[in-house]
Amino acid sequence: MSREPDAEALEVTLLASLAEAGIDARTIAQRPGDTIAPARPDVDSAARQAIARLGAVGAGPAAGLRLSRTLGEGGMGVVHLAVQTALGREVAVKTVKAERRDERAELDLLREGWVTGAVEHPNVVPIHDLGLDAAGAPLLVMKKIEGDAWSTLLGDAALVAERFGTDDLLAWNLGILMQVCHALHYAHSRGVVHRDLKPDNVMIGRFGEVYLLDWGLAVALEDDGSGRMPLARDAHAMAGTPCYMAPEMLGGAGHAITTATDVYLLGAVLHELVTGRPPHVGARLIEVALSIASSPPKLPADVSPELAALVEQAMQRAPADRVASADVFRRRLAGYLDHRSSERLAARADRRRVELEARLRDAEDPAVREDAYRLFAECRFGFRHALEVWPDSVAARRGLDAAALAMIEYELGEGDPRAAHALLTDLGAPPDDLVARVERAGAAKRDEDDRLRRVQADLDPATGRATRVLLAAVMGVLWVVMPVVATVLFRTGASRYDGYQDGTLAGLFALVVLGLAIWKRAQVGRTLINRGLVMAALVAMSTQALGAVYGALAERSPWAVFHDQILVFAAIVAMLTILVDRRMLVSALAYVAGFLVVPLVGDENVLLVIAACNLVSLVTIVAIWGGAGTHGEAAPKT
Known about the structure:
20 helices; 5-stranded antiparallel beta sheet; alpha+beta; 10 strands; Transferase(Phosphotransferase), domain 1; disordered N terminus; 3-stranded antiparallel beta sheet; disordered C terminus; 8% strand
């Protein structure tokens, strides 16, 4: 796939810039982690004057030093261990290799001493002396440091824990970077830019001391006229370490080196701390250079949002868009460390949130509600605690919102909008559509609850008890006493059966019940039980009246008519059993038994059987609904 023309043009420009520095960027000979130094310029008159002034001081430091073993060496210089006899202390002495000694090499060493001395700070290696030895060679006397390069420690949690007693590697690394910020901020206040900040150039002492080393690429922002320091305005060639390099460090006209360059390098080092690798990588140097030119790099999603934002702002392509200073960068790191406990709380809570969402997917399990609310309580507590520590925590706010949304959806699915509504308070800014859904579900639930309350009230056996007792008493007189009286009258001959008269009497009794129901209509109409009993009584008496009249018209035996009425009563009470209360089954069975018993006891005793059945019904009604202790004990059929 072909690249865009502007990308091709950028590559051509970068290749040319690298070629000026004597580098073939199409090969991998130049490692991205190695420092690229600009071509060494000729020594100008100002630099010669500075060297001459130093020579006028005399041999100086060499006279009081006793050199011993070599501590290390590079391409141009060598560092020896020495004893400073006057103070009896060990120091490090840096000199130019004899075979590489020339005017420019000597100037490089002297400038390293001059720059380092100018930025004297607790996080910069102290320079004890600078001068010439007896042969006129420059000599740099420094504090001897025992420790390791930061690059060997920053990824080794076990070693850091062993040496420095901390189990939070990221917090420890950020603490080191904050001390580097102190050194850079001071250097910037002195008008000096380091230009080669990287973990290899930071030394960690045995007791946790932090030193920013290798000021060999440092430049001065202002010309003090001494000729001691190279100037930023003259730094047009590529210089620095490619895998951390800022775009302006690629070289070329119009790319000024400023304090914002070091701020970019701080962001690049932070990138390595949070991702495990430098920001600019590639198989060839040109790929690294293209990455530099396309700043800022993208960060993985699992990086802390606060640190990701700091990296992104510090590594902006345009220097003016970067973090304002090394000190502002440090303060933002300090703020993050203050918030780190909040992030760790949020991370632990988020693990519970993931468990919660997995548990809610198993909605068929009857134990899901108990488990879900336990997990929700745990993660909600964690997220809220995280927000107490740091109210602006994005991770905690998002996590709490996600957990609350999951529970709201669960409660809506379970038909409990009240619980869903209570959970809305956990959301930072509840979505309008969700609030509307919860409100609609709540209104529907309230309507359903009102309907159920009405049904429950309709079936409450305690409601209208006095009215039922009154009706039962009336029916007791009508249905129990009157059949017995009629039997006595028939047997004594005081009265003869007349179907029309019986029908009229039954109709009058129905009117009495109807009148009582109208009189007590407020109580009768309140419950299904009361309405059912009144309707049953009216139907029974109306049926009896119609049956009596029909029997008279058909010239049927009055005893057969009474016998049939028992079966009708059994059917009416059976319907009450089904519709009102299952305990009415006793009465229904009594009427069925009475219907079966009549042939055995003789037709002349049918009214007595009816009276007995009516008595069973009366006792059943009073026992079920008439007593004072029946409230809540009925088992209504809905």
